[in-house]
Amino acid sequence: MKNIWKKLEAFFFSPISASGFGLMRITWALTGLISVFLRWPDFVWLYTDKGVLPRSLIGESFGTLENWSVLLWVDNPTHLYALGWILVVALIATALGWKPRWAVLVSLILLTSFHNRNVYALNGGDRVIRIIGFFLLIAPELRAFSVERLRTQWKSWEEKRALLAPLKMSIWPYRLLLWQLILTYVTTGISKYQSGVWAGGQAVAIALHHTHFARFSRGAMDVFSLSSPVMSVFTLLFDASWGLLLFPKKLVTRFAPTLASMSLKRTLIVFGTLFFHGGIFVLMDVGTFSIIMLVAYCGLLIDDDFRAIRAWFNRRWKSKPIALLYDGHCILCRRSVFTLLLLDHLKRIRPVDFRDSALHKKEAPDIPFAQLDRAMHIRFSGGRTEKGFDAFRALCWHLPVLIPLAPFLYIPGVPPIGRRVYERIAANRDRCADGVCRHIPKR
Predict the structure, then answer these.
(1) Residue 439 above 70 pLDDT?
(2) What CA–CA distance (Å, rounded) separates 400 from 144?
């Protein structure tokens, strides 16, 4: 009995990374903002008695759980837009991670209120938005990638020159989310199969030619529809494959040996992102449905997934740690390195305070102290060294969030300006350190 209890405890309360739910919190809030702003110009038409659905027509459902809404008491356009702005602020706070529990609660209440005020304005993603919001609300840890976490991270960096370990949470919210997705895909797959048109191969062609959802012209959709037999069957297999996640991995790999060398969950996430929901997003206008399903995928990422993603990218780029030599006596330098470390999701940067004589001698004995004091330097494992603006530009290729910025830093005219700006900032960085204006002695 004791062993059974331990297994149950481990099944529901084993610690996992909270980063997945942190990513889901951010992307959920951003998706909510997109949904709100898409409907913002039509607020009066959608949610007041002057619009398409006066409250008198939904009076019989007043007070019931499925139609509960704050907007049943609000009809004045000014008050309506005030609630809209409160929702926007709450969603922004959720994305930033400022008071995340309260921010998610307010966001969820108001999103539900707008959705229930006029169900005819909803799309396939709105119900999923509310479900994910509920999972976020009950999750034990929401501070990953938050401004609240940022303060404690900065304190750790200033005191120990190291970031805190990733936040952990109990695994049960992850399991609830996974079961919800399994239930969604499997039941949807069963319904599709029973309709006959999916197994027959016509379903994708029918969907692509729906005049309300099609993004492109009929001619373009005729071309895309040539793949309908393959894509229809693929969709059924994709939906059914989620059911395999309910079975132990050993049992699944026994009947499907090819799955032994890969993660079924990660494979489904990749296929779902690139082909299934990615294809729906590109070819069909179904509101936020595709986006919010990808948001749910973020919550499925746990420790093993983050390690696998990091290892995959580092193998492809054959990247080894990059030594970043910075001035530990300079508050601006410390803040800059701290920011870069927060963006270093692939763990490629190794910070080195060159004012530590031992570290300087070990990492860059060939670079004079005076040169290090004039600009940040980075050194790759092969010995290549960059400094200043060029060092930052090189680092951009190794920080996923900054990769989109990197190509623009090579545009003719940008490098000279970037070097000039960097030199100006570096020349004046010693004027004020740690809030007390002073000059740091040079060696």
Answers:
(1) no
(2) 18
Distances (CA, A) of 419 to 93, 107, 326, 352, 369: 36, 44, 17, 22, 20
Residues of the chain with CATH 3.40.30: 319-431
Place of tokens 């004020």: 432
* pLDDT tens by residue, 25-37: 999 999 999 999 9
pLDDT in tens, 352-411: 999 988 999 888 899 998 899 889 999 998 788 999 999 999 999 999 999 999 999 999
What 3-state DSSP class applies to 325?
A: strand
Confidence (pLDDT) at 314: 84
| Token digits of residue 139 | 């999750």
The whole-angstrom separation of Cα 419 and Cα 1 is 68
Q: What is the largest CA-CA distance in the chain?
A: 81
For strands 322-326 and 377-379, give the pairing: antiparallel
CATH number of the structural domain 319-431: 3.40.30
Mean pLDDT computed over 72-78 = 89
Q: What is the DSSP letter of 421?
A: H
Phi/psi region, residue 210 (left: phi>0; alpha: psi -120 to 50; beta: rest), is beta
